[in-house]
Give the backbone structure.
Amino acid sequence: MELRDSIVFSNGAYARYDDTRVGLLSHGLNYGLGCFEGIRGFWDAENRELFLLQLREHFERLTASTRILLMALPYSIDELCEIAVEVCVRNRFECDVYLRPLAYKSAEDIGVRLLGSEDSFALIAVPFSAYYPPGIGLRCGTSSWRRIDDTMAPARAKITGTYVNSALAKSEAKLNGLDEAILLSHDGHVSEGSAANLFLVRGGVLFTPDPSQNVLEGITRGTVIDLARRELRIEVRERPIDRSELYSADEAFLTGSAAGITYISEIDHRRVGDGARGPVTAALATYLTNLALGRDPAYADRVTRVYAGRAAALR
Ligand code: PMP
């Protein structure tokens, strides 16, 4: 199906993508005043079921982001989950998908502000496969762009405007012939990738920057920490990480809804470990894949089945 014909949810109704409208002067577009999420759905061809990963957690973060931007999101977490499922059902997806909920300031006048603007909400869903080429380690470089600091714009909110920071860093990395950027915080500690959290394995311990390092508190990051502690029974330490620690890691990987768990083969022209995907990274990736496809009963509450109970009516 073409994007323009897909069914989206926009301002309280389901509509064809091309029949929705965003005003050219809207504050979301002009001032970057919006919050969004990126949610993955995984198609299980064998069982003909689409699993949405951690819907509730994503909508909780969206709600927290809207609060920071003084926006009114007129839907409860349950209602948002229902909208997400309904959009998938109406598109009759039978493939991996990516869901993009977007709350934005839709006033169409001149004057940057948070209050006194209308708020709009949309949810778009598209077929999606891999964010990074599968099976290959990422070649990363420390960016000359620093990660936005919480004193300038809220780093833990997923705000459209702050993605100029990610785009600058990612593009610089690509133009330098690399795959991905690693951003440092303003005081020089490691923060994260352009759209993914960063983990290191060193001496059997998993390290990741703590939330005060201006990271987006990733949903995948949280699940990876849980899996490492509960399933692999390894120690996880959230603490500031120095740049030179990147160079002495045995393993390094990025996590995100789009990124999944993707290993890093090289940082600043230094090979990470032996340059191949390490055992901790591989084990965590296997656990995450099983969890995402609803195959791990211990984490059944982290997935939502789209077609459960509705398949008969649909097909
Ligand atoms: N950091 C940034 C800046 C991101 O855009 C993302 C993707 N949402 C992440 C980290 C990873 O977060 P999550 O696991 O919730 O997708």
Remarks:
- The pocket of 4'-deoxy-4'-aminopyridoxal-5'-phosphate is lined by residues 38, 166, 192, 195-197, 216, 218-221, 255-257 (CB under 6 Å).
